[in-house]
Amino acid sequence: MLIAMPDAVDTSPNAPDLPDAAITALTQSKKTLEKLLRLGICTEMDLVLHLPLRYEDETHVFPINNAPEGKAVQIEGVIVHTEVLLKPRRQLVCQVEDGSGSLCMRFLNFYGNQITAYAAGKRVRLFGEIRHGFFGAEMVHPKCRVITQNEPLSDAMTPVYPVTAGLHQQTLSRLINRVLNSPHAPSLLSETLPAGIIQRIRLPGFRESLQTLHHPPPETVAASLQNRTHPAWQRIKFDELLAQQLSMRLHYRQRRSRRAPRLGRHPPLHDAFMAQLPFRLTQAQNRVIAEISHDLDSDHPMQRLLQGDVGSGKTVVAAIAALQAIANGYQAAIMAPTEILAEQHFQKLSAWFAPMQIPVAWLSGSQKKKDRQTALAAIESGTAMLAVGTHALFQDQVNFHRFGLAVIDEQHRFGVHQRLALRMKGMPASAQAPHQLMMSATPIPRTLSMSYLADLDMSVIDELPQGRSPVVTKLVADSRRDEVIERILHVCKQGRQVYWVCPLIEESETLQLQTAMETYETLCKTFSGLRIGLVHGRLAAQEKTGVMTQFKHGDIQLLVATTVIEVGVDVPNASLMVIENAERMGLSQLHQLRGRVGRGADASVCILMYQKPLSEIARKRLRIIFELSDGFEIARQDLHLRGPGEFLGARQSGIPMLRFADLERDGALLTAAQAVADEMLNHYPDRAQQHIHRWLGQKTEYLRV
Prior knowledge:
Layout: H1 21-27, H2 30-38, H3 44-48, E1 54-56, E2 72-85, E3 91-97, E4 102-107, H4 112-117, E5 123-129, E6 131-133, E7 136-140, E8 143-146, E9 158-160, H5 169-180, H6 185-188, H7 195-201, H8 206-214, H9 222-226, H10 231-256, H11 267-275, H12 283-296, E10 303-308, H13 314-327, E11 331-335, H14 339-353, E12 360-363, H15 369-381, E13 386-389, E14 403-409, H16 416-423, E15 435-440, H17 446-451, E16 457-461, E17 471-477, H18 481-493, E18 497-501, H19 516-526, E19 532-535, H20 541-552, E20 558-561, E21 574-579, H21 587-594, E22 604-610, H22 616-627, H23 631-642, H24 644-648, H25 650-653, H26 667-683, H27 685-696
Parallel strand pairs: 4-7, 10-15, 10-16, 11-13, 11-14, 12-13, 14-15, 17-22, 18-20, 18-21, 19-20, 21-22
Antiparallel strand pairs: 1-9, 2-3, 2-5, 3-4, 5-8, 6-7
Helix pairs in contact: 8-10, 10-26, 10-27, 12-13, 22-23, 26-27
């Protein structure tokens, strides 16, 4: 097999890529090889898949006086004057004429030999954008080539490749052409797709597509290359999406080949738990509980992602899943990314499980040694059937007696090693793997889950509990702070509570933002009659817990906080949130924060306070969060703004990113790739492996856990 099992590989995103013998022999230069490695080029296949970023049209020469402005064009003329100016800064200036007019060619950075090369009388071809400057029509740092009279023009578009410092376009192009024209090219670039599939998807061959993209024929429509709609681009994007689908589906099948404990339903315990809940579950919650329960009652490991918008009730679903494991004599663990969220889970689950006499252990990094030792002993002996905590849960000292289910809340906040470490807690004493349930309050758009999360089973809570009032969002400029203060006083006088969220703890010279410390002191003076609390990430755990407990019990009316309250905090009496410097925050964070209010029956308001001037991206974010309340639609817009790498945290987690396909524009290709992936794994497994190896190569170590 080309792909190792998930627990036998280095999943680090920084695992070194090593060049193979073929690419080392091809370059014959250690310096060039180092530069190729910087671009992620380790093999000949990597080299030919290093496709152009854009294309330059050097097939046509424009007269200077008729050349369009604002777009890159090629002109040809004779240099009539060259000089080095020293003011306002040192620069090389050449006057070029072509009979229709003249323009100035300017170089702000130049070498001494360029003064000689571009001497008066030399005929040159320039490629660049014409603008009007101090010297009239000019090109600044154009691509310039000295030519002879009547030298033929290029008959095809010129590819422009992504490069790194010290690696020239010509060098890269020459190396790519050597591979494309080598005697072993037919073998290297052979088809991985069966003929029937190629015919059905109606796309050109792989080798033909590469030749077209590296050397577009003269008749190629330039726009189809630039916007990547040309059939050759479509084939490359399809192959990339197919490699991703094959890899994900193969990982999925590998996991299903493992054994896991069968955790059957236990109706008496389930019914007893449901009877003591102070609320009724929604239809959506009941649906996902049935999906999870079915997986737990299987003898292969569950690997399911539970998605649900802010406040949709994921915690009780996790509790019911844990209860099913416990009913079968297996322990469960629930891990959360922050101590505030983890402790809230602990308190809620302890209260739910106490009537059934199920002990719950608490583990965190800030625990006192004695409390920690007691919790560790309870987990190891099996006395504690449920463990709740932070990253402390997967440390070496933690040993489970009989581990059956790992629940990871806000899973994207944990790295691959951390998620794997918790799952592996169940492996040493048994060949069986524990079931795994991951939860996310950041809804994931359909195309993203179809591609990057294709190796997971999905459950979605797409319904909010009854009695939740919609949150009204208001955009307020910082200059209207006095109005906000009046609103806070009014809300507190009515007996309700308020959050005031600040993005930083202490002053930053580069980001002139209001800070939690400063805001707390200011608000204490402003609201002398209110009980005000402060919570941030640098407080000791006991202090944080104390402040949050007081706020939850109503002893604090106004809570000044950093974004540590972003997830999981549940105070139904809080009906107003003020988010300061909202323009600095991402859409997901703003949506999560807004979800801390509107948890009771009272009408709730979230005020997004911003400072002018707003950047274009900040303006777009604020408009989206103001207009939308549906987490899935906000996530779709967020994906569009940030791209999949930032959205999923994939750049940190080691998931190989798509280079060519665009999930929004190439949805039809993704759907086709999904269907072809299963067909190839079922009927052409060798070709599927060859395809994965071609596209992922050494990156086959990147596996989802």
